[in-house]
Structure formats: structure tokens, C-alpha cells
Amino acid sequence: MKSELFGVFGTKSDFDQLRSSADFDRIITGNSVVVGIRDPTLDSPGRTSTHVDQSSSGLCVVYGDVFLRGESVAVNSHQTTAATLYNTFLDWDFDALGLDQLNGSYLAVLDTEDKAIIATDPISSRECFYTETPVGRVFGTDLSQLVRVQNVFRDELQCNEQGLREFLQFGVVFGDQTTLKGVNRIPFDGYLTATTTGTLARFVYEPQAFDYVTELATRLEHAIKYRGQLSQEQATTAPDTKTGLLLSAGFDSRVILAALPEGTIDICYTIGSPETPEVRVAQKVAAQYGAEHVTLPVTTAYLDISPEVTQYTNGLRESLHIHHRGHRESIAVDQMFHGLFLDTLLRNRYIPRETLTIPLLNRKFPLSDLAKNPDIPALFEQTFGFESGDRILDEFDVFSSGNKQYSERSGKPIDPEQYLHETIEREYQAGFTRTDSPHNAAALLGIKCKSSLPFRSQLSDQYTETLIAADAGLLEWHLQTPPEYRTDRTYQEALKRIDSDIFRYRPPDRPHRTYQANQVEKFVRKIIPGISTFGTPWPDRDEIYAEANLDREFMLRPDLQGLSTRSKLRIRDAKHWGEFIEII
User: Fold this and answer.
1) What residue intervals traverse the membrane (predicted)?
2) Where is 549: in which H helix or E strand?
């Protein structure tokens, strides 16, 4: 990877046993922590920064796209975020780390004379892994490097069967675990010390009454414009810098064009075929805001599983979320904007709603009211693509002729429906430490999982990228807005406050203002002959899978070839991840 944070609770000689100094742009040594950083944007405005206290050997590293909240772009361009955080940290406890002054997507490493900690941002948008070694606890952003470190001290890491089963059935690994025993993650909204882990209390729901539309419009526009100004500051050292946007026909990326001054975005990229409604609308939106548009054609490379792709999943999430993976050579920009997770935080992607069942049509239609007795497992069965018909670890030893790490299994029979309910209920109930609302607890589960995080991980490693959804003001809005107001209607009204003409070209699959009306038309189009369906914004993975003849990877396992495409892609991901870490 181009960017990495790696460290050890120990001495510089301990660090040198594990990694070469040549791997990093900078290595800083504190009292009890040594940290190596590799980052092309190190010391750029609003990016990774470091600070060393020469008088006490303390240190601070703030890694990611991060700046001081409430300060002007000029201040954040000439002030070291790490130094400011360190000076606040000198009088900390676990409930008041001084992290509230940070804004963005980050990891913070702090070390003073008598205390050291690594902390995530409030939504853990940059994951950090850790493992125990004879020289001390080791941590880092690249899980494969922790595997390599462990291989120095032990023959072979063992598979964490629970994590692997979750990945194969849900496409994500829940909680703080990974698919390997002995390698874990810093908890959500959490921290790591030399001997402990724990959680902070920044991402806690506290609903309040205010003007939800006005506040959302103000905060969203500010979040986008501020990052646009920072990107221009970063580009001052490279006058030929090109800035791109991954643009769909939906709402979450077009608002970036609407909020930024015309000319900030040089090129918009959309994946698809030129004749599809999704691409045609995206082209019109780009032209509306004066940006060039490039269509990235769909090829079998859409399901590429090279090591350069595999590493961004960390074996925890599906590679299929890296939609642009087959176009690394075609995307010719230095900076990249995108709207990932805006729908998750601002318009209730994971909120259960009441439905109207029409037996004659054998169909449930969503209503606007929140579900009174939400069926949370059923909600996430659909959201996570739980393949109840594919008893992957029950009936099949999926890696019997594959990777060693993933060949173990208990042999205990598993009932898919029971497994679905027990797993989702366990993770859902864990959310009630941060909310007393069943609807917010459901939203929190989706936010914790961040199933599409590999999309962002690849972008942030390849380009100077910013995660707008991690903006502190937007997170505050999410936590303070009751779930019944985090709706498509609120979101669209806020977007119109930013630009009254933002919906000149509506998304082809959402011609109406409400989710309910769009779902009704979607159903009608399916059942009436001669009327085209809405289709989907994303390429057809079943079609691409067949065109690429990916069943050839299961030539020795005909019993697996009858599984769904989604299940086979998950098995393929896990297999290639296992092979990747074995050769590290």
C-alpha cells in the first residue's frame, strides 16, 4: 500500500525487529510507542501530521484526512494538527481525550511520559488492527503486515471460524474480530493501549428538536466547501493537480458538484455502459456543473481479484464494493471526491419502516412510518445479502483443497435461520449502550459494519481522498436528529437549499420524491409487459461472473458451482485473501 501506519508499544530496537525503516517516510519514537508512517500527503494541509515533544519524548501522530474543527482553512494550512492535539492530551482521561477538536477520518496516536493510546475517529472510518508479540503489542492499518509480523514468531496463524463464517454468510465480519485468531481490531469509536482496549462515548444518540432541513443543508454545504478549499491548498505545491469525482446518477455525489465552485472538479467518472440511463443522467449532471465526464466501461475486470485489490478488503469485507477496481489506469486524477456513506448517515439506509402487504400481489410496500415492532434480522438479511439457501460452512468444506489457514471447521450443523437471528440479534443488542431507540440501534449496526469500506480504502490509498461523511458536523446532525426525520424527504429538501436546480435531472430509478412512490412504480414496471424496468445503478455481477467464466476457479469443487454468484464471490474473496497473507 502507498499509505500505512504501523507501530509497537516498545522501543526502537523492538520496532526494527519487525519492520525496516526503509518502509516508511517517517519514524518517530516516544516514551513507550514507536510509530512508522508512510503517506504521500504527510504534512499537507488537512492531512497526516506528527509532533514530537523534545522536552519529554512524547509524541502525537494524526493519520488520515483530518483537521482542527472550527478553525479556518488558513489556520489548518499552517498549524500542525498533531501538535495542537498533543498539548490538549497532556490533561486527558478516557472520557476527555481532546479528540473532539478533530474533524475528519483519522487515527490518533498519543504518547506522553506516563500514558499512551491509539484512538479511532467516532465512526472508525479508518480501521486499526493489533496483535500480541514477544516484543510487545503491535498495531497498524494494514492487517497483512500484522500477519507477516506474527509469522516471524509462530508457525502459522489459525482461522477464526466465527469470523470466516460471518464473512461468507453476510459479507462482513462483525465486532472487533477478524478472520484470524490473535489479530483483532480497535473497537468502534474506541481506543487501544499497551494492555487494554476500550470504547469512547462520542458516537452516542441524543435526539433534539431543531430545524433539521436547514441544519443539514448548512452543515453539508460547509463540509463539502471546506474540503474543497483544503484540496486547493494541497494543490498549491503541484500546479498540475487534477481533481476527480466518482459520480453516479444519485444524490450523494451530485451534491458535491453543487456545493463546490465550478471548476473545482475537473473530471467526473461513472461506471457503466454509455447507453444506460444511469450513465446518461450522470453525463447531464456533470455538464450541468461544468465538469468533464468520462464513462468507465464495464468489463470482466470489474471482478478483478489481484493482490492489489485483495489487500483493501483485509479479509473482512467483499471486494465487489470496489466498483472502480478495473480502471486504475483509466482514472487520471490526483485528488478524488466521492459521496460514500452519506446515505448511511443522512437518510436512514438501515431504518426499518412499516410495510403494507397486498396478498393479491404477494408484495410488501414500504410506508413512511417507522416500524413499531421491527424485524431486525429480516432487515439485515436483505441488506447484507444473507444467503440462507447456501449453507456454506455447514454442508461444504469450502477450502478442502485450498488455503491452510481456512481449512478448519467444527463440523457442527448450522441452521441458517437460527444463525441469522442469533448473529444479528447479538450485534443489534450491543448498540443499546449508545441509544435507547430500536431504530437508532439498527442504524448503528449498519454504521459499525460499513460493508462498502473497501471502496473507500482503495481510493484513499491511490489518491488524495477525503471522506465527507466523516465530517464532525454531519455526525452531530445524525446523532441529534430523530430517526423519523432522517428521511429521503429531509435529505432532498436540504439538497434543494444548497442548489434549487439540483434535481434538474432526477436519478432514473427515483423519478419521484418519496421512496414509497419509487418502490410502487418499480413494482408496476416489473409486472406490466412492454414497460422497461428501472434497472440498477451497478453492473450485473451475475452476467460479469458468467462472462469471465469464474466458475473455473471451482473446477475441483463442482459441489460449490451451484451456489449463488454472491456466495461464490465471497468464497473467492476469502480464498484469495488467505493466499495473499500466506505469501506475505
Assistant:
1) none
2) none
Tens digits of residue pLDDT in 14-71: 999 999 999 999 999 999 999 999 999 999 999 999 999 988 889 999 999 999 998 8
The answer to whether 178 and 160 have CB atoms below 8 angstroms apart is yes
The residue from 416, 432, 449 where one domain ends is 449
Are 37 and 165 in the same domain? yes
Q: Are residues 44 and 18 in the same domain?
A: yes
Reduced 3-state DSSP string for 140-161: ECCHHHHHHHHHHHCCCCCECH
209 pLDDT tier (thresholds 50, 70, 90): very high
- Number of domains observed in the structure of the chain: 3
**CA–CA separation, 163 and 254 (whole Å):** 36
| Domain-terminating residue out of 176, 199, 222 | 199
Phi, psi angles (nearest 5°) of residue 219 = -70, -40
Note whether 192 and 292 are same-domain residues.
no
Instruction: Please name the residue that has the C-alpha cell 462482513.
Output: 172
Let me know whether 138 and 82 are in one domain: yes
| 223-256 pLDDT, tens digit each | 999 999 999 998 887 889 999 999 999 999 999 9
Does 244 lie in the same domain as 130? no
Asked whether residue 428 is domain-assigned, the answer is yes
Give the residue numbers spanning the domain of 479.
212-349+450-582
Cβ-based neighbour number of residue 16 at 10 Å = 14
Classify residue 355: in a domain, yes or no.
no
User: Cα(553)–Cα(304) distance, rounded to whole angstroms?
Assistant: 13
Instruction: State how far the Cα of 81 lies from the Cα of 48, in Å rounded to an integer.
Output: 8
* Cα separation, 441 vs 456, whole angstroms: 24
Q: Which of 209, 191, 190 is nearest to 433 (CA)?
A: 190
Are residues 309 and 411 both part of a single domain? no
Report d(CA 481, CA 428) in Å as an integer. 20
Cβ atoms of 111 and 10 closer than 8 Å? no
For residues 505 and 462, membership in a common domain is answered with yes
Considering the domain architecture, whether residues 181 and 133 belong to the same structural domain is answered as yes
Q: What is the pLDDT of residues 455-486, one digit of tens each?
A: 999 999 999 999 999 999 999 999 999 999 99
Q: What are phi and psi of 18, to 5 degrees?
A: -100, -40
Q: What is the pLDDT of residue 367?
A: 74
Torsion on CA atoms 405, 407, 408, 410, rounded to nearest 10: 150
Torsion of CA 85, 88, 92, 94, to 10 degrees: -30
